[in-house]
Amino acid sequence: MPESRQVELDPVVGRGWYDGEAQIMHRHSQGQLVYPTAGVLAVTTGRGTWVAAANGVAWTPAGFDHAHRAPARTEVVALMIPSELCTSLPDHPAVLGVSGLLREAMLALVAERTMRPQARDRLLGVVVDELTDAPEQSLYLPEPRDGRLRTVTELLRSDLADARTLTELGREAGASARTLSRLFRAELGMSFHQWRTQLRIQHALVFLWQGRSVTQTATLCGWSNPSSFVDAFSAIVGQTPGRYQAPQPQSADQPVTAR
């Protein structure tokens, strides 16, 4: 098991940059929101990996072991949510959609200006209200426990463009396609095709953020034509690759303080 430690932070953490960094597993006594205003942030737990881009915020409940990783330069805004305000929020890690109001409330909470405690409390209430109604995004990749599934998923991770069928991959894993298909459904809650698509889209977010074109990204991630990639990306991320690549509001560089 990865090393884990308790991390205590102030109710409002701030904003800054991750740049290709990863953490050890840790947990908080309060809920945590980490919003990548620019870039891509992965949140890993024992259950799997969630990925948040600029239209999603990563939510981790209190007491949940997790680690953050930014595969490319990523600006984040981080907030701690007191436990008494978390009862209406998911009891599991998730990536939640970001409304315009939620974005502005979070940015106001981390702005470098003095804020009266009552005003801050009201803004935190707005954040929680917006999150309560926010849809969960499907950028989640569960981790398998079964050794045969792990063999298949590691093969897919090692080559995103691997187009082999489940039958072909099963020969290396020592299991039939029927057995593997059943395991994907029973253990991971999704089909082989869905898991592979989720894996590819998570990597596509990074490739696009790094400046690769839609066509290049589609090829790297295993799509034979860009239009199919655009359809899959839009269905999962909620916006087209071109919209995702549109410039985000600029912010001054600051050392990251989120954990």
Automatic annotation (TrEMBL):
* InterPro entries reported for this sequence: Homeodomain-like_sf, HTH_AraC, RmlC-like_jellyroll, RmlC_Cupin_sf
- Asked if Cell membrane is a keyword of the record, the answer is no
The family database entries (SMART domains) matched by this protein are listed as: HTH_ARAC
Q: SUPFAM superfamilies from the xrefs?
A: Homeodomain-like, RmlC-like cupins
Keywords from UniProt, A to Z, are:
Transcription, Transcription regulation
Q: What is this protein called?
A: AraC-like DNA-binding protein
Span of domain HTH araC/xylS-type: 150-247
Q: Is Transcription regulation there in the keyword field?
A: yes
Supply the Pfam families for this chain. Answer: HTH_18
Organism, as annotated: Micromonospora ureilytica
Upper lineage ranks?
Bacteria, Bacillati, Actinomycetota, Actinomycetes, Micromonosporales
